[in-house]
Amino acid sequence: MTAVRPDIAPKQAPEATQFPTGFVWGAATAAYQVEGAAAEDGRTPSIWDTFSHTPGKVHNGDTGDIAADHYHRFRDDVALMKQLGLKAYRFSISWSRVQPTGRGPAVERGLDFYRKLVDELLEADIAPVATLYHWDLPQELEDAGGWPQRVTTDRFADYAAIMAGALGDRVATWTTFNEPWCSAFLGYGSGVHAPGRTEPAAALRAAHHLNLAHGRAIEVLRDQLPAGAQTSVTLNLHQVRPLTASAADADAARRIDAVGNRIFTGPMLRGEYPEDLLADTAHLVDWSKLVQDGDLAAISRPVDVLGVNYYTPTLVSLPEKGESGSGNDVHGASEFSPWPGSEHVAFHLAEGKERTAMNWSIDPDGLYNLLMDVTRDHPGLPLMVTENGAAFDDYVSPEGRVEDPERIAYLHGHLDAVQRAVADGADVRGYFLWSLMDNFEWAYGYSKRFGTVYVDYGSQRRIPKASAHWYSDVIRRHALPPAGLS
Ligand code: FCB
């Protein structure tokens, strides 16, 4: 054997930090954003069908009627996931596909779609992670009053039982709600999301009923699922920062943290609503009537893992009297506030930071801080990053490629933040890139592309972007590649 001459021996790259053993690599979508087939096999309209078909509500009049046609193309999509090396797929179930009116017996054809999807995933060695509700309430339940009505929680518990019965033997990870903040406060507060109502008191009532429905569904899932199954909920915890060190701005941050975050984490993880939230909103709802005996015990049934979605931090201030606030949320402008009781808080964009196509500032430290804040406030709680990603103005080059170096940089920075949080003690179990593929971005329609796979909506052709290949490489290494390697 010839010894390698030291002067020509390959330089040893520094050992890359590995993600924890068992760390799950996934990508996420949601039913209304990708499935299409809006009127097939017995599906009836959800609030998002009604909303997107209402002129003026969605950019360009776009709807989810066809979307990425995942309903018909799921086999090819799963094959693509396998090719990319994904270990898990987070999808949501369209309630109005499996229980069209939101009541009564399930429609087998609707259930079959999810059975086939799950079987296909398992066959490909990809773990299915099912979300029961990603914003698409059956329209009939909205017609009966929607989430501001307590009876909707009964409907949700029944629906959870149907799904646990149909898929419980095959799906090991279940999430009750995706971002209930958006359902309550964008749906019933600012009205930029379905059902488009602008009633601050109703938004708070909706938040309580979403909490209660979550707790009731956890009970149902726990009863029906095998012992090893994991239950969870996904929250878009706002990483709130005051604009300045003033006492007024600190109060703005406290208020938004209360009605943006602690309104959910309080009852779910501590079994109580925060006192300051109750005080800030006392003029809008009578909490002593809204929260009935036993509700808090029901809502605080333990979850096995908390899902967190993070895109950008939330910078706030409390303007002097007379000054007006600037904008009210990253999800779309409205003259109505999604922050009941704290309508006077102003929102800002950080100076000097790069932005995505959503005009959201890019700030990986926000994800690090979020994971560390939750770990500090709820020690020992396992976490999962259930969404993180970015929209950029992607296009197909004449050679048929989609180069998205900004997305690679975004993902690299945020995965690095996850690693730093893990090193500092956060128990992060996995990461789901938003999104597997370009899709219907709610009020922005098809104008914003979040996918790591490009979708040509005319032909429905899928083209993995450069970031998909990069992500594949990360999964294979179970570590980040050296910076600049893409
Ligand atoms: C989240 C939603 C998801 C997607 C991303 C960009 O708030 O959960 O459906 O729209 O934002």
Describe the fold and architecture.
The protein has 486 residues and is of the alpha/beta class. It has a single domain, classed as TIM Barrel (Alpha-Beta Barrel). The chain is 38% helix and 13% strand. The protein has 16 helices and 13 strands. The protein has helices spanning 31-34, 47-52, 70-84, 95-98, 108-123, 139-143, 151-167, 180-190, 200-224, 247-270, 275-280, 287-290, 295-299, 364-377, 405-423, 466-477; strands spanning 24-28, 88-92, 127-133, 173-178, 230-235, 240-242, 305-309, 314-317, 346-348, 383-388, 428-434, 453-456, 461-464. An 8-stranded parallel barrel has the order 1-2-3-4-5-7-10-11. Strands 6-8-9 form a 3-stranded mixed sheet, covered by helices on one side. Helix 3 packs parallel to helix 5, helix 14 (364-377) runs parallel beside helix 15 (405-423) and helix 15 packs parallel to helix 16.
What's the β-strand tally?
13
How much helicity do the residues have? 25-40%
- Globally, the shape reads globular
Radius of gyration: 22 Å
Q: In the CATH hierarchy, what is the class?
A: Alpha Beta
Number of structural units classed as domains: 1
Count of helical regions: 16
